[in-house]
Amino acid sequence: MVKVYPMKIPCESCYSAFQLDESLVKPTGSLVRCSRCQKVFRVYPPKPIDPRNCPRVRIKNLISYSVFNTSGKLISRGLGIALNISEVGILLETPDCIKAGSLKLAATDNEKNLIEVGGKIIRTKKVSTGMHLSGIKFTDADERVTKFAATLIKEYSFRGKNLFYTVKQKHQTLNCPPI
Question: 51-165: which CATH architecture?
Answer without folding.
Answer: Beta Barrel (2.40)
